[in-house]
Amino acid sequence: FLVRDTRRAIQEAAKKHCFVCSKTGATITCWEMGCDRSFHLPCTPQGECVTQFFGLYRSFCWEHRPQQAVQPHPRQNNTCSICLDTVEDKASYKTMVCPACQDARFHRHCIQRLALHAGICFHCPCCQNRELFVMEMLTMGIRMSKRLRPSWESEPAVGPSDQRHSRCDASTCLCPGGRKHTEEEGPWKLLLCGSCAAEGTHQHCSSLESSTSSWECEGC
């Protein structure tokens, strides 16, 4: 009976349409009672959905996802504490805030990359708080790795202070200017993985549509 029920569940999931890309095979359904939105895991960033990688592994659509209750302290420069690029001046799906110091703010893809590289040593890059910070990040859908030592202890080139990734990692790069060439718009716009930000691709090299604003690498 268990095998039969599993097959039936797979068959039913295969018929569901992703509310983000409209294709079938959307196996993730919003946890909120009465919400029938389903989506693919790779479509999570584009649909601004949240999947919690702990406990019951609950997933939520953009409407019902958990929201950060804290707002960052006002400051002159609205920059990410990790990559130093501009962020919003308030908490949102793409901009996250440390619940402890409420001063550190960062892009979702930046803190996701840090979580994967830091492993069990993951903490706020500014105030060093761990317990409150980690629980908040997990609730907001940040996935942690189980590595015992941060990757930059053995790989100095990779770390929270490193420059953002800036090359196309597609198996075949089609850009005439090479893997490191990038443009703000068009087929040679470089997209970084929405989860780890450690790999990138030109839109054209991965056959992405011009309207695509997020992308997930094969490893994520």
TrEMBL record:
GO terms for cellular component: nucleus. Pfam families: PHD_G2E3 (PF26054), zf-HC5HC2H (PF13771). Gene3D superfamilies: Zinc/RING finger domain, C3HC4 (zinc finger) (3.30.40.10). Residues 1-65 form the PHD-type domain. Keywords: Metal-binding, Zinc, Zinc-finger. GO terms for molecular function: zinc ion binding. Residues 80-128 form the RING-type domain. InterPro entries: EPHD (IPR034732), PHD-type_Zinc_Finger (IPR051188), PHD_PHF7/G2E3-like (IPR059102), Znf_FYVE_PHD (IPR011011), Znf_RING (IPR001841), Znf_RING/FYVE/PHD (IPR013083). PANTHER family: PHD FINGER PROTEIN, PHD FINGER PROTEIN 7. This is PHF7 protein. It comes from Xiphorhynchus elegans.
